[in-house]
Amino acid sequence: MIHPPFPASFDSHPMSPAEQAFLDADAAYDETDGSYSAIMGTRPDTIAAALAGSPAGLAAWLVDKYRDWSDNHGDLESRFDRATLLTTITLYWTSGALGSSFRQYFDFDHNSPRPDITVPAAFTVSAEPSYANFPREIAERACTDIRHWSEPGRGGHFMPLEEPDLLAGELTQFFTSLRPY
């Protein structure tokens, strides 16, 4: 997993300086990208309906996310060729699935707190801006059995497309470690 989980609550014990620094930086980052969080957490169906009616709007929305959330240093096509971007846009357009991908943001505050994750877990932390300096302690509040933790310093939100060999190696290493022999 490239995005380690947050705990249901930070109340179990005081936060470390690293945890507090990350949460402060995350809040500051959210201020620059706050409209995304605001609309996803309150009105995801509205933006989904607007994007479902405009192929150009959908393309602009998705390309903006690929540009902002990937590890491309300002050059989108250094990570994604146009065919890949157009394929992704076409898949969302023809399937009408963009709206369902938004629902998780709204549902987050409307669900019961998630219990601790007790199965073996592995994390390859992406280098996207919102996960810079993500402290393992946050994930340890949510997961009781972290078997693999890696911070390669490259690859963003779309790591399977950006760094497929890196991610395949990470997955192989984790699942191989679970073998009983």
Describe this structure in words.
By secondary structure, the protein is mainly alpha-helical. The longest helix has 16 residues, at 17-32. The model has no long low-confidence stretch (mean pLDDT 91). The chain contains nine helices and two strands; from the N terminus they run ααααααβαβαα. The chain has one domain: 3-Layer(aba) Sandwich (Rossmann fold). α1 crosses α2 (34-42), α2 crosses α3 (44-52) and α2 crosses α6 (98-108). It starts with 16 loop residues before the first helix and ends with a helix. A two-stranded parallel ribbon has the order 1-2. It is globular, with a radius of gyration of 18 Å. Belongs to the peptidase S33 family. Keywords: Hydrolase. One of its GO terms (molecular function) is epoxide hydrolase activity. This is Epoxide hydrolase.
Q: What top-tier CATH class fits best?
A: Alpha Beta
The class by helix and strand makeup works out as: mainly alpha
Tell me the major beta sheet.
2 strands, parallel
Summarize the amount of helix as a percent range.
Answer: 40-55%
* Quaternary structure state of the chains depicted: single chain
Spatial sequence of strands, sheet with the most strands: 1-2
- For the record, the CATH architecture stands as 3-Layer(aba) Sandwich
Low-confidence stretches: none
Number of domains: 1
Rough shape? globular
Fold-level CATH name: Rossmann fold
Number of helices: 9
Radius of gyration: 18 Å
CATH superfamily, by name, is: Alpha/Beta hydrolase fold, catalytic domain
The total count of strands amounts to 2
Q: What do the pLDDT scores average to?
A: 91
Separation of termini?
24 Å
- Portion of residues in beta strands equals under 5%
Order of helices and strands: HHHHHHEHEHH
